[in-house]
């Protein structure tokens, strides 16, 4: 009898200990008959289920060009292959023949399709900011699961949409981003920077074609940041009557930053990754996935005045040295300082900050459209 487990609930040492012939499946869609899948794979002792890819594929309700989707998915599967796993599969929706359409792009497509309820975005959302939360499936030390970034940014996005429902609409969270450091510790996925940019530009293209014009790409993972900036730049030039924005992570601006300083007990260096901040969030949101008995505080980052690691990083230098230069466990920070109450307070601050951002995106779009319609500058010559 096959035991099914959720890949993103595990910590990286647990993934590192998995036999490399354990089947790992990335579903595009949901409502899968996993018993049937297991039977087709020979009823393995264990079968790992990765987070579902929420949209982008045919029949999902929000489609992009297949080659953009395939590059993204294939990079994710390659992450698992690079970690030594030999039985890695994509499981696609059965709507509109996507199983066959994707087959010419993806190398491993050997499983039956899943069923899927297409995503629907109400027409009323065309007057709102579309929130696009993007997390990641990435190692977070010994004590936190791979799903940290996804869980946190989804909570912030959903909280923002609930806080200002007349101004914002939250899309399903994307659980896969970019990790250029993925080889250092097992289990971390990587969509690839260029594939990531191309896919999300494709998402914006599709939404703009449907009449949406205000977007907020919200990241729960630091590795997404520079690529999201590029996406915003490309989108703003490609679609000149939209307003598309992003921000550095979350809980880091004019509201989140002061809230961090008010409640933190760790020193600078205690919040880089799987430290006080993210662990507090997880103790508040998903304490069942936290293993506080395994916490190892690591703050011995090679820091200089213009380059150091904390949640709100400082200094003018930007670099990307190997992670294993500065951490033995995968964590940068002091997770032992975390509490669920801090997580609650920081989540409130993050939602308040994002709600302000949403209001500013509306104001930016309104004022810019007014200028354009009045013929400001070169707009008057078009």
Helix content: 25-40%
Mean pLDDT: 92
Structural class: alpha/beta
Written as H for each helix and E for each strand, in order along the chain, the element string is EHEHEHEHEHEHEHEHHH
Instruction: Note the beta-strand portion.
Output: 5-15%
Please specify the SSE layout and strand pairing.
Blueprint (H helix, E strand, L loop, with lengths): L2 E4 L5 H5 L7 E4 L6 H7 L5 E4 L16 H17 L5 E4 L6 H6 L25 E6 L13 H16 L4 E3 L22 H17 L4 E6 L5 H14 L4 E4 L9 H8 L12 H10 L54 H34 L9
Parallel strand pairs: 1-3, 2-3, 2-4, 5-6, 5-7, 7-8
Helix pairs in contact: 3-6, 5-9, 5-10, 6-7, 8-10, 9-10
Structural notes for this entry:
The protein is built from ten helices and eight strands. It is an alpha/beta fold. It has a domain at 1-120. The strands form two sheets. Strands 1-3-2-4 form a four-stranded parallel sheet, with helices on one face. Strand 7 (214-219), helix 7 (225-238) and strand 8 (243-246) form a beta-alpha-beta unit. Helix 3 packs antiparallel against helix 6, helix 5 packs across helix 9 (276-285) and helix 8 (256-263) packs antiparallel against helix 10 (340-373). The termini are far apart. Residues 96-102 have low confidence and may be disordered.
